[in-house]
Amino acid sequence: NEGLNEPEFLKVKAGDTVLIGEDEIAKVLTFIGGSRDPDSPTLFQVANVDSGEIHWVHGEEVKQILRTRSG
Predict the structure, then answer these.
(1) Strand partners, 48
(2) Taking residues 21-30, what's their average pLDDT?
(3) Of 26 and 41, the one with more pLDDT
(4) Residues near 25 by Cβ (< 8 Å), separated by ≥ 6?
(5) 14-43 burial, b if ≥16 CB within 10 A, otherwise e?
(6) Residue 70 pLDDT class (50, 70, 90 cuts)
(7) Over the stretch 33-60, which tens digit does the pLDDT of each residue have?
(8) pLDDT for the residue numbered 5
(9) Three-state secondary structure readout of 29-51
(10) Gyration radius from the chain CA atoms
């Protein structure tokens, strides 16, 4: 049952559309992995879908994956 309680941000990949905080929807451009596991995302570079603003967010700010890059 490992992974059942893992945080949502650990499942995020580049190209996904995510909810950040309470009301920001953004597209994930890229991410930086953690020092213990480089494949585990910790910081995400995102583009706000409304304003186009590009900025970095901490993984724990990602509340939900709204759409994956494949569907």
Answers:
(1) 26
(2) 96
(3) 26
(4) 17, 18, 19, 48, 49, 50, 66
(5) eebbbbbeeebebbbeebeeeeeeeeebbe
(6) confident
(7) 888 887 788 899 999 999 999 999 999 9
(8) 76
(9) EEEEECCCCCCCEEEEEEEECCC
(10) 12
As separate numbers, helices (DSSP H) first and strands (DSSP E) second, the chain gives 0, 5
* Beta-bridge partners for 58: 43
3-state secondary structure of 56: strand
Residue with tokens 């893992």: 6
Contacts of 54 (CB under 8 A, 6+ apart): 29, 45, 46, 47, 48
